[in-house]
Amino acid sequence: GERGGERGEIYAKGASSRQLIKAAILDNDFLGHLEPEQVSDVVDFMKPAVFPQGSTIISEGSHGSCVYVLEDGKVEVTKEGEKLCTLGKGKVFGELAVLYNCTRTATVTALTPVSLWAIERPCFQAVVMKASQQRQALY
Ligand code: CMP
């Protein structure tokens, strides 16, 4: 569609998933400042992904490129082998490397089978840049 193109295609999703993703973004320390239109674009472009129990979703030090929202299941966050926390349904992770163009700051492992929503870095950055360009064009 017109809003697809190089940013990827919109992935249709139900109202409850849209609400879960939106609430997860607004609850996140680093994404909570996004404007309503940016949040709604991120929700549009997120695609589903699943990981089996025990799998590594993110490896500390790697060059990953997705931001994730947990739809179902639990993950553990570890850094240099030390447990930092457990995250459940409705939490964002993987935002730091994408926002700050750094390597992954921690390892994220699936404690249960996990269903996620994922958006890739180029798509995420295009959404954020598009809105700031539109704002600048007003002046
Ligand atoms: P990122 O660095 O992209 O990949 C690893 C993710 O783990 C990171 O983004 C955060 O989402 C998450 N993370 C890193 N440190 C912590 C922490 N101290 N508490 C909770 N989550 C963290």
Describe the 3D structure.
The protein has 139 residues and is an alpha+beta fold. The chain has a single domain (11-133), classed as Sandwich (Jelly Rolls), CATH 2.60.120. The protein is 33% helix and 28% strand. It contains four helices and eight strands; from the N terminus they run ααββββββαββα. The strands form two sheets. The protein has a four-stranded antiparallel beta sheet. A hairpin with a 2-residue loop joins β4 and β5. α1 crosses α2 and α2 runs antiparallel to α4 (121-137). It is globular, with a radius of gyration of 15 Å. The chain binds adenosine-3',5'-cyclic-monophosphate. Residues 58, 77, 84-85, 93-97, 104-106, 108 line the site of adenosine-3',5'-cyclic-monophosphate.
User: Can you name the CATH architecture?
Assistant: Sandwich
- Catalogue the unreliable spans: none
What ions, cofactors and ligands are bound? adenosine-3',5'-cyclic-monophosphate
Mean pLDDT: 92
Strand arrangement, major sheet: 1-8-3-6
CATH H-level name... which superfamily? Jelly Rolls
Kindly name the structural category.
alpha+beta
Q: Quickly name the level 1 CATH class.
A: Mainly Beta
Terminal CA distance reads: 29 Å
Order of helices and strands: HHEEEEEEHEEH
Helical proportion?
25-40%
Name the beta content range. Answer: 25-35%
Largest sheet: 4 strands, antiparallel
Approximate shape: globular
> Total helix count?
4
Cα-atom radius of gyration: 15 Å
Which fold name is given in CATH as the topology?
Jelly Rolls
Number of strands: 8
Work out the count of structural domains.
1
